[in-house]
Each structure stands twice: as structure tokens, then as C-alpha cells.
Amino acid sequence: MDTVHDLGGTQGFGPIPNVSEDDTALFAEEWKARVWALAMMSMGKLSEDQTGWTLDWYRHVLERLPPDLYLRLDYFEKWILGMMTTAVDEGVAEVSEFTAGRAARRGFDYIDPTPLGTAGDTKPRFEPGDSVVCRRDVGSMHTRLVGYVRGRAGVIESVIGKQALPDEAAKGHVRKEQTYVVRFPMSGLWPEAADSRDSLLIDLWDSYLDPA
After folding, report:
1. What is the pLDDT along the chain (212 residues), one digit of tens a residue?
2. Packing angle between helix 30-48 and helix 75-90, nearest 10 degrees?
């Protein structure tokens, strides 16, 4: 889905401020460390209990944030909203518990845990050296097909192996597809790079590609 998170090649956001931070510290502020720890714990628990939760669903939750919030919030503030949404979605907590600032119960009691569905692996269609074109159409949910390569021509650089397709994993379905490293000439992606001899390498799933 095309949402504000897909910023590759987008202009008009102004310069990126050079924020000085202590590079020896893992987290700039203590509360961010707590958020990270809570996220790792809850993600591990949801996966262990086979609720159907996936990392791609979590990413999709963040992508659905209103554009003004997505651009304004701190990285770990988005994580907080992602965990809250996931907790409500899985039935672990109610919205009223968050507004009240305290839990009404203890433990992880799920409303309707649904184990991940699985589908047969797809066979690879391309080999190194094959010319391909990225598809233009995308689904209405999560995708890793960035906007600036859609409809653009590239060449298969190498074959990575089979990995779960994020578009399906965000729905709770595991379908492994062959993935490739695809080389795109910069001159074919950006008008200002018309004279460039540089290339961009991107990892892409089989169903994102068509033969050129």
C-alpha cells in the first residue's frame, strides 16, 4: 500500500538535522530502551503462542498511522502505538485500559488466536542475467515493493533463496517465494541521474517481477 512511509525519492521535506548523540550509548534516552525491551518480549510471546502474528503485520500497523503522526512521531513512539494496536487486535488489552493507564487483568488471554496458514512454495522463474520489469500494481496491505522501482527495468544479479512473501505474511499466511538481487541502472530510476553509470541493487520477491 502506498503510504507516507515509502519516502524513497520523495522531495520537499527539507534538510535532515544533524542531531548530536552519544554514540557509546545504545539508546539516546532510557525510555526508548524500555520500549525496545517490551517490544522484543511481546513479539517473542506472540510468535511463541502461535497467534498468527508476524513482523510484517506489525510493520503494516505502523504504515497505517496517519501521515502527520508518522512524520512527527519519534521512531520508538511509533513502536509504542504499534504494540498498543497489536495488543488490542490480539485481545490482550482493551482500549479502555490504555486510556485509564492501568491493566484490568494479568496475562496474555487471546480472543481468537489463529496459527499461521501455510501455502506451497513457488518455483523460481528467473536466473542471473535475466531482464525483468517490476510490476506496477500492489495490494492494499503491506508490500516491500518500493514505489520508485515499479514499472522499471532491471537485471537479475543473483538468486538469494526462498523467503516468506511479506505481502502474505502481513495477513498471517506463510508463502515462500524465491528472492533475487536485482540491479537497476540509476539512470533508469531518477531523471537527475541520466548520465550516471551507477547502479542500485535491491532484494525483490518473485511475484514482484515480470519478464522484460
Report:
1. 567 778 777 777 788 777 777 778 888 889 999 999 999 998 888 888 888 888 888 888 888 888 888 889 999 999 999 999 888 888 888 899 999 988 887 777 777 777 777 766 677 899 999 999 999 887 767 888 998 999 999 999 999 999 999 988 888 888 889 999 999 999 999 888 889 999 999 999 999 999 99
2. 30
pTM, 2 dp: 0.81
What secondary structure letter does DSSP report for 202?
E
Cα radius of gyration (the chain): 20
Verify that 7 and 102 share a domain, yes or no. Answer: yes
Question: What is the residue whose three cell numbers read 520477491?
Answer: 205
Distance CA 62, CA 79 (A): 8
- For the domain that residue 34 is a member of, what is the CATH number? 1.10.472.20
Q: Which domain holds residue 132?
A: 118-211
Q: Are 13 and 73 in contact (CB under 8 A)?
A: no
Question: Which CATH number goes with the domain that contains 138?
Answer: 2.30.30.50
